[in-house]
Amino acid sequence: MAEPRVLFEYTGHLPECPTWSEAESALYWADILEGEIHRYHLPTGEHTVLSFHEEVGCFALREGGGFIVAMRTGIWLADKHGLLQRKVCDNPSNPQLARFNDGGTDHFGRFYAGTFWAPGDYNGALLMRIDNDLTPEVIQCDIHGHNGLAFSDDKRWMYTSDTPNAVIYRTPLDEQGEPGKREVFRRFKPGEGIPDGAAVDAEGCYWSALFDGWRIARFSPQGEQLEEYRLPVRCPTMVCFGGDDMKTLFITTTRENMEPEEVAAYPLSGAIFTLPVSVAGVKKGPFIAR
């Protein structure tokens, strides 16, 4: 069985939102708490960092270059250098209590971004979508901490997870990609880890980073666990597919809220890992503004 390996010598604070650029042969990711978007060019090993004035919960590459970026107080369009160009919308939650978290694009090139409700006193987070004409819309509520966004290759399902509530949902989509009523895909028991960021492969299986679980796992379209891969760190945060054949899984991890003793014992916490897999992943397209 293949084992995860470190991509390169790097550890971040809260790396998330790994995003593969096929055109550039480069991996992008955010370090949420540092307010950064990173780029690692695999052919040359060049690593560059863009800095923003707020936490970067998630982002997507834009058609034609640049980014759409969900920061704490709102969502912006930015150029390839990280210069903010246009504010798309405010954070519809109270930004003092809920920052943006996981997100990405669907098959229509629309951008989804969810929030994380920090107080934890009720499910106060939400999932919103930015349409191609830049119109914002709240899609789902009743969430504690949104994660796990992924879309099946047949365009029939949207997957999400609520990490603190230890559940993965799936939501049926119509031909225009509009969501129906979400349903439970899988719940997790204490000790299994809780579902964080995710991706879908060409066989319709859902790969989830199991935060606090020391592992990532692959689930069938029916929610049955098919495979798992152990990591040398406790908290993976998200996975994405990339590489020339889309058969490399990139895995981000974190050292957020870890005591110095744990970081010393597990110094790769916050590193990015790669894992060769046998089934190609579904490509994640850019945000398309019209």
Helix/strand layout:
Elements: E1 5-6, E2 15-21, E3 26-31, E4 36-41, E5 46-51, E6 56-61, E7 67-71, E8 74-78, E9 84-90, E10 98-105, E11 111-117, E12 125-130, E13 136-143, E14 146-151, E15 157-162, E16 167-172, E17 183-187, E18 194-200, E19 206-211, E20 215-219, E21 225-230, E22 236-242, E23 248-253, H1 260-265, E24 272-276
Antiparallel strand pairs: 1-24, 2-3, 3-4, 4-5, 6-7, 7-8, 8-9, 10-11, 11-12, 12-13, 14-15, 15-16, 16-17, 18-19, 19-20, 20-21, 22-23, 23-24
Summarize the structure.
With 290 residues, the protein is mainly beta. It has one domain (5-276): Neuraminidase, CATH 2.120.10. The protein is built from 1 helix and 24 strands.
- Largest sheet, order of strands side by side? 1-24-23-22
Count of helical segments? 1
The CATH architecture? 6 Propeller
Instruction: Tell me the fraction of residues in β-strands, as a range.
Output: over 45%
Tell me roughly what share of residues is in helical segments: under 10%
Calculate the terminal CA-CA distance, rounded to whole Å.
Answer: 45 Å
The top-level CATH class is Mainly Beta
Reading the helices and strands in chain order gives EEEEEEEEEEEEEEEEEEEEEEEHE
Main beta-sheet strand count, sense and barrel state: 4 strands, antiparallel
Which structural class fits the helix and strand makeup? mainly beta
